[in-house]
Specification:
The structure is a single chain. With about 575 residues, this protein is mainly alpha-helical. It has 21 helices and 6 strands. Strand 4 and strand 5 form a beta hairpin. The two termini are about 45 Å apart.
């Protein structure tokens, strides 16, 4: 993979001797140390491993990959969160506007299959940069454990590195090939080698089956090494902080394995793993989500998330989730350019008025009960707006323009409405996702009644007291997918869910009112080859073993009007 001038494994090993603050700048030129030398080095200077370990997490919010396309930072270059926003905007249920300010329009229009575009390049390289560091840590910490096998802190770090590498592969695998059920033996993505002399210039794509076998193996290892590192447990010598949920613990490893088993249609195992991931957590209550939220690692229903400090937020500026997904930032692209994501009216109209989540978006008249206590203050003149009045409020600096109907107010601001700090955290795993995985896993493993009971218990107790799983007239499988689409909206699951379920992307239905911009108003068949991502041209040029995806064409406005998905019909 010559885009780094060295293999990603060598890049990861190099980070063991590089301060994490220098990760985006320094590239190791030359050979790598032997495992024995690395182990000896890190036993003598453990802070070097600690720097690499900390850097593995810091990279999750750091940008930098897009700098190959420009000499300055890009507004859409913020690592994993950027990928999740892109994947949501490729789906059926969320969109920004078709204007010159929308950096994510390439995702909504599916021009991001161009191998020379920055957006898909960032989405491809971010997981591999992270996996390279995890790969190096796995090699190094394994050697350290061979010398000190009972060291709890080292075991915990090794378990986290295994889980992180699995997370990295899960961030790529569902998008480069069809689902596991139909495409297990088809080419997916290259896997990183484990030998220092691995030839990255001729590293063919592993099959879907091989990629998921590696993911499951990594998570099995993570779960083993993370014994004792479950929620509320503080192994000796391991730092416990108020922000512990930024780290991978055993709950997270079980949750990642639940996702992988869901994609593989290992239904019973997915349900069991989701159960293990949920231990110690409860869903957000109706009261908790009856106001803008989903912005702080401290929210009780988060199992894992990306922490963004005020210092990082200040450095990143617009390159953060708050800038793009929160309607309440006083210094962001979304509220200043009418690009705060909106919900597709097709899905919104299916949400009952008794469901608290209907208030996660403005209605056709720009009303929501959920923001009644929010106050926007113009920092220049002190003018304020509260609740529904915020929708058409504009500030003197142009940082707040009028909102459109169906704008989301799901994502609040950690530092308060109209804050300019942009220090929102990002949810990577919530207990609600695990509940829905458990419901689906049970329902599809021959325990439909149990799966239905899990689903109804969650929605009735935490979202809609009037809920009935049969009221929408959908099959139980489609009902669970509907609940995922509402509950996990804009959290990055849209395309992966549609692909694993063999469902089309349905953004419009003729004769039904639509709020989707014309350029993004099209439907895509589940088996359309254009759904497969393309490899960046730099990667194809450097790795001669890659045979790229082909076929299909960029969608055009109005195409496939007869497609239906079983949820928004």
């Amino acid at each position: 993979m010559k885009l780094y001038k060295i293999s990603l494994l060598a890049f990861g090993l190099a980070m063991l001797t590089t301060a994490c603050s220098d990760m985006d700048e320094q590239i190791y030129e030359g050979g790598s140390l032997t495992p024995e030398q690395l182990a000896e080095t890190n036993l003598a200077v453990p802070t070097r491993v600690d720097a690499s370990f900390a850097g593995m997490y810091k990279m999750m919010a750091d940008g930098g990959s897009g700098r190959v396309f420009t000499n300055s930072s890009r507004a859409d270059d913020f690592a994993f969160v950027m990928s999740m926003i892109s994947l949501s905007l490729e789906g059926a249920d969320a969109f920004g506007q078709d204007n010159n300010y929308n950096w994510f329009s390439v995702a909504s229009e599916y021009s991001d299959r161009d191998p020379n575009y920055a957006n898909p390049y960032i989405r491809y390289t971010t997981p591999y940069r992270s996996a390279g560091v995890a790969n190096g840590l796995i090699a190094n910490l394994s050697d350290v454990l061979a010398i000190t096998p009972d060291d709890a802190a080292t075991r915990a770090k090794l378990g986290q590195a295994y889980a992180m590498r699995a997370f990295d592969y899960l961030a790529l695998a569902p998008y480069f090939q069809g689902n596991y059920a139909t495409s297990a033996d088809q080419p997916c993505i290259p896997l990183l080698g484990t030998d220092a002399d691995f030839d990255y210039t001729n590293n063919p794509r592993a099959t879907v089956r091989e990629v998921y076998a590696q993911i499951i193996s990594d998570l099995d290892n993570a779960i083993e090494y993370l014994k004792g590192w479950d929620r509320g447990v503080d192994p000796e010598n391991y730092e416990a902080t108020a922000n512990m949920k930024m780290y991978i613990d055993r709950n997270v490893a079980f949750g990642l394995r639940a996702r992988a088993n869901l994609y593989m249609e290992n239904w019973a195992q997915a349900a069991a793993d989701a159960d293990s991931a949920m231990v110690g957590y409860t869903p957000a209550s109706i009261s908790d989500v009856s106001r803008p939220a989903f912005c702080s690692l401290q929210e009780k229903n988060w199992i894992w998330g990306i922490l963004l400090t005020e210092a990082q937020a200040s450095d990143y500026g617009y390159r953060c989730c708050a800038s793009w997904v929160s309607a309440f930032t006083g210094s962001g692209y979304g509220p200043a350019t009418t690009n705060t994501p909106c919900i597709n009216q097709l899905l919104y109209d299916k949400i009952p008025d008794t469901d608290v989540r209907k208030g996660w978006w403005l209605d056709a008249t720009k009303h929501s009960d959920n923001w009644a206590d929010q106050v926007w203050t113009d920092p220049k003149n002190g003018n304020t707006a509260k609740g529904d009045d915020i929708a058409d409020f504009t500030d003197a600096n142009g940082d707040k323009v009028e909102f459109l109907p169906y704008t989301n107010i799901k994502f609040g601001m950690k530092s308060g409405c109209s804050s300019t700090k942009n220090d929102n955290d990002w949810p990577l795993m919530r207990v609600e996702e695990m509940i829905l995985i458990k419901a689906e896993g049970l329902a599809k493993s021959g325990k439909e009644a149990e799966g239905r009971a899990v689903l109804e218990s969650f929605v009735k107790n935490y979202r809609d007291p009037s809920y009935s799983s049969t009221a929408g007239g959908r099959s139980l499988a489609d009902e669970i997918w509907y609940q995922r689409r509402v509950e996990l909206w804009m959290e990055g699951f849209d395309v992966a869910d549609a692909r694993r379920l063999g469902k089309p992307i349905v953004r419009f239905i003729p004769g039904r009112e639509s709020n989707v911009p014309e350029a993004f108003k099209f439907n895509i068949a589940a088996d359309d080859p254009w759904m497969n991502m393309r490899f960046p041209q730099t990667e194809v040029d450097a790795n001669h073993g890659i045979v790229d995806n082909t076929g299909g064409a960029q969608p055009t406005s109005g195409q496939n009007p007869d497609l239906r998905d079983g949820v928004t019909d």
